User: Fold this.
Amino acid sequence: MKDPTVCEEGHNLKQQKTPRQRMPEQDHHQRIKNFSEVPQGYTPELARLEASRCLQCKKPLCRSGCPVGIDIPAFIKLIAEGDYAGSARKLKEHNSLPAVCGRVCPQEDQCEKVCIVAKKFTSVAVGNLERFAADYERTNGAISIPELPEPSGYKVAVVGSGPAGLSAAGELVKKGHEVVIFEALHKAGGVLVYGIPEFRLPKAIVESEIEYLKKLGVKIELNSVIGKMETVDELLGNGFDAVFVATGAGLPLFMGIPGENFCGVYSANEYLTRVNLMKAYDNGHVTPILKKKRIAVIGGGNVAMDAARTALRMGTEEVYIVYRRSRTEMPARIEEVKHGEEEGLRFHLLTNPVRILGDEKGWVKALECTKMELGEPDASGRRRPVPVPNSEFLLDVDCVIIAIGTSAHPLIPMTTPGVKVNPRGNIIADEKNGQTTQEGVFAGGDIVTGAATVILAMGAGKQAAQAIDEYVRKKRPALNRAGSGLAHTSARR
Amino acid sequence: MFKIVAKEKLSDVIYRTVVEAPKIARKRKAGQFVVVKIDEQGERIPLTISDADPEAGTISIVFQTVGYTTKQLSTLKVGDHILDIAGPMGHPTPVKNYGTVVSIGGGLGTALGRPITEALYKAGNHVIAIISARNKSLVMFEEEMRKISHELLIATDDGSAGFKGFPTQLLQKLIDEGRKIDLVVCVGPVPLMAAVSKVTKPYGLKTIVSLNPIMVDATGMCGACRVTVGGVTRFGCVDGPEFDGHQVDYDELMKRLKTYTEREQEMNQRFASQFQEVKR
Ligand SMILES: Cc1cc2nc3c(=O)[nH]c(=O)nc-3n(C[C@H](O)[C@H](O)[C@H](O)COP(=O)(O)OP(=O)(O)OC[C@H]3O[C@@H](n4cnc5c(N)ncnc54)[C@H](O)[C@@H]3O)c2cc1C
Ligand SMILES: Cc1cc2nc3c(=O)[nH]c(=O)nc-3n(C[C@H](O)[C@H](O)[C@H](O)COP(=O)(O)OP(=O)(O)OC[C@H]3O[C@@H](n4cnc5c(N)ncnc54)[C@H](O)[C@@H]3O)c2cc1C
Ligand code: SF4
Ligand code: FES
Assistant:
């Protein structure tokens, strides 16, 4: 028998003297009264201590667990050596948004899940270290603008400014192309600005990433709904050599249960948009939001947790999570569930909402639910919840937030005949390079995969950028630079 | 930033503002709207594109000062800027030659329905326009409507101009007279759209209404604008704003429009105090 305390690379796993370093957190009594970030970041001392736990594996499992293949041991080593700015540069070789990913990636399902140290102890805190290095670089003005190649003369349009669009734009501009991002909303960032709350991802971080792209030369045209203001085909006809579609999966799904249109029923997207993008939590902003006493949030994913924890911070007395399966099936990150629980969320698990009841003026007054139990596994491999007979009960709430998922945005496919979609409405695109069914049009991120993760969207943007670079150079090899493209006037001059 | 190039006060509470928005001006069609956010702290509100000049690169909006944002908008002068305008949003009106079209507008709705009426007029329809107001002094857009209609009927509550009564009564009269009507279009307050639809439904007379649910993004990603049409939930911003008037659940729409009444009153007071300070 092999000694279980010695790994394949010969590291002695018994020798972990240093435990995983916890990141200091804002106290939960305090934090539910504000929108500031919950984890407060490592100090350099904590970061170096944590970095020293990494065994610097020759065949690092963590790296294979990372969707974009970050050289994890290398960036951790630089932290251990005190070269924090160097560490951030190392991260950026593979991940253009480390400060974002260090905060929102589900590391427990990716790099940290497979980290060798986790076989015996708790894994190296890859995410916390990533965040530390990126924050160091940002807050110490250590962000360097890379040297850009000569302008290539090619012009690429990016539709949507979420992580997929931002990463594609960053890669393309670094290859010398002229890049214009078209964003439908009045702020760039996609879900990073309208969905994920401030207490999990400070908007200043997203803004600084966007400022960085602008410094590199990326143009961002806000208030530009492609498909309405201009179509993809018109962009191609107006001087763009290629278009990257990264419009996300932002269409909120409703349950189709009676009472969903009563006043006081929100989609999570609406609730979060009002608070995050429109800043309804600040009375100085004009956008209204209902401040109710008891809110039920339906769903068990990150979006449900974000909506519920936001509701707590808006001063709601009771916030319930209503989820039809059990805790182990909850798709939300463990950390978010833990944080939510500390903050006082109440969980109604194995509970399925069947009807929203309202008063005569059309306002929510209760949520009718059925108790569920777990039956046979379904297609997703998770045990299917089945209703318990005669278990109906009423949850006394005056507001309901529905967070059961989103689907693809149909506007681009509807207005771009050459771009085909699958039966779920997602754009059909090559997994490796984002090529759609129309020449010159590439797509990536949630619009292709359905609602997924920031890192996958970012990775897709990067891959597509590579393919777009090859495509434009091949399509028009002898380039007449003088004749390239129309000047695009900014929508926000 | 979108520059205001002209502004006109049309009544005590109604203004017309012309803004530079070249791309929208080129693209917009009758029935579409824009989303306007005045400044950093502002909310996003939908406003119909009441006219556009593609050459000059401008669009006009006509709005009524009903609350904080529309009042704030009314304080902006020529040369001022609006931070964000996005559009054109929503489906354009399906414009074709239907035959005879009755276009009904109530109050501000007359101005908002004007581009639709104009497009139908240009498409060769025989247009009967009905405009209504409480009394003669409140009858608006009469001259503009006369230019794009073959017959213009006016209804006032007190009979001080045109017919004494409601526009629905005029519509009923046309039907009773046996006039051949192929399409009815109504833009105005929800009760008017509901009443018109109620008149035309028994005759199976195709009726288009333009709904005004509360919106946030108007790109289809929030669902604030949910309306029930034919028993199905639709998003007013991307599926509309025009719907088959016979299928709309007006009662639900009326209730949903009252979602933020409390806050709106608070904001109205805030506007009054801010405005006082500006004046002083
Ligand atoms: C509340 C919430 C919490 C989440 N939490 C996490 C998390 O903790 N970790 C994680 O990894 N993932 C999380 N996700 C998922 C993650 O945010 C998404 O997978 C990711 O943002 C997808 O990126 P994207 O670039 O494909 O699209 P998006 O981020 O959705 O961006 C799309 C952009 O395109 C714009 N757009 C759409 N249509 C048009 C058009 N026609 N013209 C111009 N612009 C258009 C949209 O306005 C938007 O800005 C969360 C999602 C939500 C909603
Ligand atoms: C497609 C569409 C086109 C419209 N076109 C015009 C137009 O051309 N001219 C015009 O004067 N009005 C128009 N409206 C209505 C206009 O959007 C509202 O009057 C405006 O938002 C009121 O804002 P407020 O802050 O001034 O008033 P508030 O005091 O906030 O509200 C007054 C009333 O307006 C409704 N309202 C509030 N916020 C919104 C919102 N974000 N979206 C929609 N309704 C809201 C409320 O239900 C309330 O009854 C349109 C609405 C829609 C949906
Ligand atoms: S993070 Fe874990 S798996 Fe990765 S190199 Fe360090 S010890 Fe090995
Ligand atoms: S206004 Fe948000 S979906 Fe229609």
